Amino acid sequence: DQQVKQNSPSLSVQEGRISILNCDYTNSMFDYFLWYKKYPAEGPTFLISISSIKDKNEDGRFTVFLNKSAKHLSLHIVPSQPGDSAVYFCAAMWSSNTGKLIFGQGTTLQVKP
Amino acid sequence: EPEVTQTPSHQVTQMGQEVILRCVPISNHLYFYWYRQILGQKVEFLVSFYNNEISEKSEIFDDQFSVERPDGSNFTLKIRSTKLEDSAMYFCASTAGVPYTGELFFGEGSRLTVL
Question: Which of A20, A28, A101, B49 has its CA 20 to 30 A from that of B73?
């Protein structure tokens, strides 16, 4: 089941620069897309989401872009901070709203001071 | 800040044994979920639960699995006869209402090791 894919297992950026995490999906029926962040020994923490009817959503340093024609979304973190170092999961859901999220494999972001 | 708590943090069991993983969701939350992550793999949905009923379950959630809210605070996942492939990190999550934006509140997880 590869409905949501994150092809980059890891990403390393310098503090203060932009981090771009990418995600692709195959199911055009998804209604919402989300990013979760996970630190070691903790559960995933919701970061930001975007409806399928939008192409951009911004929350502070975090912006998610959605390209429906390409079935691609990305998370931009500007400026990146060392505390952003974590595993980032892309996820998708249908509007049935049962709380069933389809996760990608995750990308480990390392922000170097 | 309210949080979802899970016990035990780590459980080791023999294949074929029953295991119960416990979760205390955030107190005013009404929707409850279990997810799991096998080492090196994706986080996978297992089941959602509302109003004392399963709302949706995945193919993974077969007859060996069951969920229960035995009292007003706990939400449990029972695996009747564990298999080696049940070894994973199990995450409980909860929400106050229907998660229209997909925001679930996850616990820290319970690591299950089946020998």
Answer: A101
- Chain B residues inside the 8 Å CB shell of A91: 102
The string of pLDDT tens digits covering residues A24-54 is: 999 999 999 999 999 998 999 999 999 999 9
The answer for A 76-105 residues in CB contact with B (under 8 A) is: 89, 91, 93, 96-105
Task: Decide if pLDDT at A1 tops 70.
Answer: no
Task: Report residue A64 CA to chain centroid gap.
Answer: 7
How far is B99 from chain A, CA to nearest CA, in Å? Answer: 6
Amino acid at B103: E
Alpha-carbon distances, residue A106 vs B11, B29, B50 (angstroms): 25, 27, 28
